[in-house]
Design brief:
102 residues, alpha+beta, 3-stranded antiparallel sheet, 4 helices, 22% helix, 9% strand
């Protein structure tokens, strides 16, 4: 796929992200939610999962020379672990609550 001319935007027909062409080739990706990012971030989060030749032919972000190096920070981070039992304070757990007074 050809580079996007500086000052213009193209919307991907598959994922609906918009890629804005920038001078120097450091294009900006506008996601449907969240802060703008890079082509590398778009690749790490979306484009790498395309499976068919038809899908990849429609994708605006298949050229490795245009997307640049993908870093570990471009992928989604693991969700933090949550200690559900600590948040309940023992209430509602078997044997953890106080017995009702008669």
């Amino acid at each position: 796929m050809a580079p996007i001319p500086p000052g213009t935007r193209q919307r991907c027909s598959l994922c609906q992200a918009e890629i804005q062409g920038m001078v120097g080739g450091n294009d900006v990706v506008h996601f449907s939610m969240g802060a703008p990012g890079t082509r590398a971030k778009l690749w790490a989060r979306v484009c790498q999962y395309l499976r068919s030749a038809e899908q990849t032919s429609q994708c605006l972000n298949q050229d490795p020379a245009l997307r640049g190096e993908v870093r570990s920070s471009d992928y989604y981070a693991e969700a933090p672990q949550v200690d559900v039992a600590a948040g309940l304070g023992g209430a509602g757990l078997a044997g953890g609550g106080a017995e009702p007074q008669a």
